[in-house]
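Structure first, sequence second, as always.
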């Protein structure tokens, strides 16, 4: 009886804690470009599963987005936003942390990293951007094998995107890395990823990027997702896309200069002459020839 009462009270406290924590960190706030996150500020992440200090980013566990091992992450395209927020804060040793999920490692070069497991089937980071008034969006990051344990597996990472914040994802061509790790007992491999997003990501209120991996055969390795960056360029002033394409300052700022005046040409019998500082055509005077001589 006593044990049960304590259990109920514990569950209630947990429920309250979840209810308080959820609204603050459930949805990333949309960021403009240029956007960057290198995790150097280890004060952004201080509490379990709390992403509220990290602008524009959340991480989710991806439970049951696949239930097999060694699934190609390019084929894992379902929503995933209903899977639990995940963040193991303030870690210092990737070799010793055997839990799967997403963790912050306060290393000499701090990073956030993914490591799938049988529970965290497809852990992923989601970045929320607005590209309104922008085009040619690029997204880049540095994949880091920070796992120097004896674990040695094939850890594939894919980059996906979607427009509008709901529905399934699309794998971005060129964003796939077949194995971002080496081993055993190696934590050296770095793999830079940089892609330009397809044109349908241009000029949208919300574009999301998802960096995702899947549960490998055997013990997975921690892979840091570091130096995340997004850039774009303004829609061109010459783009015939309408008012959105105008430069800041409106039509006046982009108005073409007045056309240059044509040089003055005079008809026969007239010649050019400066009159009060301006060229004019004036009648030629006839020459008087002296005869004789
Ligand atoms: Ca921290
Ligand atoms: Ca870093
Ligand atoms: Ca490794
Ligand atoms: Ca595994």
């Amino acid at each position: 009886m006593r044990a049960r009462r304590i259990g109920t009270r514990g569950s209630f406290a947990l429920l309250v804690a979840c209810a308080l924590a959820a609204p603050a960190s459930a949805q990333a706030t949309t960021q403009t470009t240029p956007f960057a996150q290198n995790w150097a500020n280890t004060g952004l992440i201080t509490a379990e599963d709390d992403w509220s200090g990290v602008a524009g980013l959340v991480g989710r566990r991806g439970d049951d987005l696949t239930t097999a091992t060694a699934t190609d992450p390019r084929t894992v395209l379902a929503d995933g936003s209903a899977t639990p927020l995940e963040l193991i804060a303030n870690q210092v040793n990737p070799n010793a942390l055997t839990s799967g999920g997403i963790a912050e490692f306060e290393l000499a070069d701090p990073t956030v990293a993914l490591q799938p497991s049988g529970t965290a089937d497809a852990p992923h980071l989601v970045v929320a951007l607005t590209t309104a008034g922008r085009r040619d969006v690029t997204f880049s990051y540095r994949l880091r094998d920070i796992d120097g344990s004896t674990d040695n597996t094939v850890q594939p990472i894919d980059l996906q995107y979607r427009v509008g914040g709901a529905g399934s994802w699309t794998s971005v061509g060129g964003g796939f890395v077949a194995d971002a790790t080496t081993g055993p007992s190696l934590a050296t491999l770095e793999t830079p990823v940089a892609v330009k997003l397809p044109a349908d990501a241009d000029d949208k209120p919300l574009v999301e990027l998802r960096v995702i991996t899947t549960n490998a055969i055997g013990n997975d390795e921690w892979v840091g997702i570091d130096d995340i960056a997004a850039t774009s360029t303004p829609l061109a002033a010459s783009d015939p896309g309408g008012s959105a394409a105008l430069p800041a300052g409106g039509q006046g700022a982009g108005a073409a200069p007045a056309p240059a005046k044509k040089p003055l040409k005079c008809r026969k019998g007239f010649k050019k002459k400066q009159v009060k500082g301006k060229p004019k055509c004036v009648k030629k005077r006839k020459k008087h020839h002296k005869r004789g001589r």
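Margin note: The radius of gyration is 32 Å.
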